[in-house]
Specification:
Elements: H1 7-19, H2 22-42, H3 48-57, H4 73-87, H5 92-104, H6 116-130, H7 139-148, H8 154-168, H9 173-179, H10 182-188
Helix pairs in contact: 1-3, 2-3, 2-6, 3-5, 3-6, 4-5, 5-6, 8-9, 8-10
Length: about 190
């Protein structure tokens, strides 16, 4: 369980640690780790730094300090990523890419051939939230990751975050997920049982 080592990755982890609750921080880390495993298992090439930074910041729009009352949380997160990338010295194109990855993690489907980082983040966050394809995770990896980065009260906290987003932004994808039974999917996620 190694993270890519670059100044931007270290800074993204620092930002996520400072502004996320322990549940959301660990969710972000697990999202990266599930994505890293899936990519290795399926031979998917990807930009590890871009994926890690995007994973650390993908839910930053749910944090009180960055929650936007008009933009969806993923759009707010994309804006944070753009500013973060500027501070990291990234060119504009890379800042835009980080934002795209964060926005697309909420899509139903992303084409892996066109955008491997968004594909991996969409899949890994779905694994960690709704339990999609968790049966593919090897038992030892699953146990190691959950021991190092426990879920705490993610199911309750995340459902509450999305319910708040849905109430204020009824046309958002978060609202669509709430109407689609997100709270129940969180509670039934096999990862909740360890």
């Amino acid at each position: 369980m190694n993270f890519p080592d670059s100044p931007a990755c270290r800074a993204a982890l620092e930002v996520a640690t400072a502004f996320h609750t322990p549940s959301l921080l660990n969710h972000s880390v697990r999202a990266y780790l599930w994505a890293e495993w899936y990519a290795a298992e399926h031979g998917i090439g990807y930009d590890a730094e871009l994926l890690f930074v995007s994973a650390m910041l993908h839910d930053i729009g749910l944090a009180q300090a960055f929650d936007n009352h008009e933009l969806t949380f993923e759009e707010a997160g994309a804006n944070v990523a753009w500013v973060f990338g500027a501070g990291a010295g990234w060119p504009v194109e890379r800042r835009v890419r980080a934002g795209e990855v964060i926005i697309r993690h909420m899509w139903d489907k992303v084409d892996v051939a066109e955008d491997p980082e968004s594909f991996l983040l969409e899949l890994s966050t779905a694994m960690d939230i709704s339990g999609r394809q968790t049966d593919e995770l090897p038992g030892p990896l699953r146990a190691r990751v959950l021991a190092a980065y426990p879920r705490f009260d993610l199911a309750t906290e995340f459902a509450g975050c999305f319910a708040a987003q849905a109430e204020r932004k009824p046309d958002s994808l978060a609202a669509v997920f709430v109407r689609g039974g997100l709270a129940g999917k969180l509670a039934r996620n096999p990862l909740e049982q360890g």
